[in-house]
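Notes from the pairing session

We agreed to fold both candidates in a single pass and log them together. This is the raw record for the first candidate, unedited. Please don't reformat it; downstream parsing expects exactly this layout.

Candidate A
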Amino acid sequence: MSIVDTVSYALAQACKAHRNLIAALLDVHGLHPGQEQVLMHLWQEDGLTHSELVERCRVEAPTVSKTVQRMEALGVVARQADERDARVSRVYLTEQGRQLREPIERLWEQLDAISMAGLSEHERVLLRRLLITVRGNLP
């Protein structure tokens, strides 16, 4: 079997196309891929620490630090020292960051509709379950 015939190759190609599309959709809002992930987690629970964002976004600590710095410069998040431990920094949504929730959720629904076009509901559920398993297999 050729490399281009492997599941991993197909997955890599799909991931690349998916990332390119999300980049174009996010650019309308002045955001870059990965920043919407931080926003999504903060919409669920505002005031997360850097280490909590690392865990939830499944990225390295320097990536979260750089992402949060850029988002802070955009005015969508603000960092504050933890009230109980000044060594810990918490990330909070600004009003501008909260206002992005609806347009980003619509954007994500659009991305999902484009990505899943032609798949039945059963296939979508199965694909999601399989991708979760694949993600769990990876470091």
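Candidate B (folded immediately after A)
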Amino acid sequence: MKVLNFGSLNLDHVYAVDHIVQPGETIPSTAYELFAGGKGANQSVALARAGATVCHGGMIGNEGTWLRDKMDDEGIEVGNVVVADSPGGHAIIQVDASGQNSIVLFGGANQQISDEHVANALSTCSPGDVLLLQNEINKTAELIGAGRAAGLTVCFNPAPMTPAVQEFPLELVDILIVNEHEGAALAQAADVPDIAPALRQRWPDTRIVLTLGEKGVHFLDADTELHVAAYAVDAVDTTAAGDTFIGYFLAGTLEGLPVKQALQLACKAAALSVTKPGAMDSIPLRGAVETFVG
């Protein structure tokens, strides 16, 4: 089985700051770096580094073709990554002294996916393959429906969370991976203990994975409810923690690992990712994750 990850490809402009800028405030940046990123691209790299077979679908601007080449070097199939005649997606990221971040996104070419592009990418899949989606491209709702119709296991990470997600056919999603903010919005529940049960009640056929940062992760499906603790590390940059978790969790699941082991693997990988700066470049290799004690 393989994963078709139809998602964003961004260039990440990262600025080191003493604190996240407030409205009306101008502050200096102490450092600047350019990284490969986008939730879609990051999750594809995490899948590949975890050992999964992954194909990426998406669009990128002419200024970002090096990102497609970088993904190809990671062993990701990039035949469905199309170069647009318009600016590509990018992110402006502030990272403060504690490693916390604030992100502004410009969708660019990520918002120009066509029906033909979707059909071409899905035609490369077989029933039982996994379709992974985020919320940084257009056609996400259509992809959910088309993926389910093609017999794929649909995994959706509604990041960034927008009001439009409430109108997506989420009853067709097999695995829903959300953080506390996304889960609370979808569940309409303010208290963390209520989020996963509320999501499960709304979509009873969906496996719920609720990530809680340093508080770990909660999993709920028809047969299993469990919590896995996070690993304590000194955070430098949390930008890719969620994307790393998703890639490693899906890779572990596809390998046939029990749910708890797949979650532990993903938590280890996410912990390692926050100890380095950047997004894609911070995603650890499988060997480092396997030897990490925590």
